[in-house]
Write a structure and sequence with these properties.
This protein has about 140 residues and is an alpha/beta fold. It has helices at about 10-25, 35-45, 60-70, 85-95, 105-125, 130-135; strands spanning about 5-10, 30, 50-55, 75-80, 100. The chain has one domain (about 5-135): Rossmann fold (3-Layer(aba) Sandwich), CATH 3.40.50.2300. Strands 2-1-3-4-5 form a five-stranded parallel β-sheet, sandwiched between helices.
């Protein structure tokens, strides 16, 4: 799985923070400040994961999630939000979000989730007997 991540958020501070931290963790980062631009970038490049804010101009995170899942359902999409009603959060999961995170708990949760996604994918790709033994030992 590509360790390339597309991040969409209209909050420049959050976007920059995510870029800095994730680059330090070894991820390739491409960013967009709205859902419309993110979708255009997504269609031109290959990403392993998409992280999107829920509330953005031009196209919100829910619509971006829907379109990504329609075009490439295998791509995990993590939605971040400063707050949303419980029914809206439930709908995001139904729409295919891998996880919905509160921005206040973002960094701790996000690094754990990204590690899990890439570890799961690497395990599936390299499912030799010796790897399984090492993985479970």
């Amino acid at each position: 799985m590509k360790r390339k991540i597309l991040i969409a958020d209209d909050d420049k501070g959050i976007l920059k923070l995510l870029e800095i931290i994730l680059k330090q963790e070894g991820y390739d980062i491409v960013s967009a400040s709205n859902g419309k631009d993110a979708l255009e970038i997504f269609r031109k490049e290959d990403f392993g994961i998409v992280i999107t804010d829920l509330n953005m101009p031009l196209m919100d995170g829910r619509e971006l999630l829907r379109r990504i899942k329609k075009e490439k359902p295998e791509i995990p999409v993590v939605v971040i939000t400063a707050g949303a009603a419980p029914d809206k959060l439930t709908q995001l999961i139904k729409d295919g979000a891998y996880r919905v995170l509160n921005k206040f708990d973002l960094m701790r949760e996000l690094l754990s989730i990204l590690s899990d996604i890439f570890r799961q994918n690497d395990f599936v790709k390299d499912a030799s007997f010796s790897y399984i033994v090492r993985f479970t030992a």
